[in-house]
Amino acid sequence: MYSAGTFFHKGENPMLARSEEKTIIIGGIFQLTMITAFLAALGLYPPDTSPLSPWLWPSHMGLVLFGYCLITLYTKNRRTVRLVTTGVFKYTRHPMYTGFVLMDMIFWLPSPVSVSPLFLGLQTTFFLSLITAARWQEQETLARFGKDAEEYYEKTPRLFILYPWVSR
Questions:
Q1: Residue 69 CA neighbour count, 13 Å, CB half
Q2: Number of other CB atoms surrounding residue 61 within 10 Å
Q3: pLDDT exceeds 70 at position 17
Q4: Most exposed among 21, 51, 137, 142, judged by the fewest C-beta atoms under 10 Å?
Q5: Is 2 within a domain?
Q6: pLDDT per residue over 58-104, tens digit each?
Q7: Percentage of the chain with pLDDT > 70?
Q8: Is residue 143 part of a domain?
Q9: Count of domains in the chain?
Q10: Nearest one of 102, 31, 96 to 68, comparing CA atoms
Q11: Contact criterion met (CB below 8 Å) for 22 and 136
């Protein structure tokens, strides 16, 4: 979860800043992989978008959640230097990724496509990249916010779909 700014501010530990920059780059690679796998599946295997599709509405809710988080982090809290723990961030460490999982639900209906090796590979890549990117972002957040991030992680699950059953 990236909070407001991405890099350390003037006067902070430069070694920590380099470590954070490396974490951001590695996390970004997994984010790009995740987004590419999702878009490839969407392009190669167009989902059922009829209004009667049971996964259409969760998918749209995921899109709204993803958009809300983009606005919250990169517009409203752009200049904030504290960890964002309010709003949807109160329920999940990664609301944008939760939104992605909800958007991905449109592919979850059984179909002949769902057993295609390419499709299964794209879905596996999507979920493994999502989990890996989330872990790298958590490392970056721990480096930036220390004890505040640890306390936040103790009471907040990674993905909302696990709330309140799994706290870590």
A1: 24
A2: 15
A3: no
A4: 51
A5: no
A6: 888 988 998 888 888 777 666 567 888 888 888 888 888 888 888 88
A7: 76
A8: yes
A9: 1
A10: 96
A11: no
